[in-house]
Specification:
mainly alpha
Length: 156
Amino acid sequence: MCQPAWGRARIAAQRLHDLARLRRVRDRIDREYAQPLNIEALARGANMPAGHLSAQFRLAYGSSPYTYLMGRRIERATALLRHGGLGVADTRRLVGCASPGIFRTRFTELVGVPPHVYRHRTRSGVAGKTAWVPKQAAGQADRWRVPAAEPEPSCR
């Protein structure tokens, strides 16, 4: 059974509204990555339940809000370690990672080497001048883009 046109329009409008809220969450993560952020705070700011936000964010962007946040923090940490003249502990604190263990683990997963090794290699010129590209992003250039809306089924 097909939905009437007003029903499809209402669903499409709600989807656009939800995508706008998810974009605001993502933008907040991009701006405030160094602040203590958690899913509950992000969900309150988006006026959504935490579980719903997490599920919708994953559908829209291909990862959970936490994974996206950690990716931003690690991305910034690589730049600071490459150019900042800071140690690993100072860099970790500047990007908002409270736990040294979590920082080291996520950094190693995303970059391929622990932060102290990355810092040493970039300072000694071993890593070259190329920017960091996360390992999981290889072949996934559109990872953070919102997918196009699926076409509505035709009802005749």
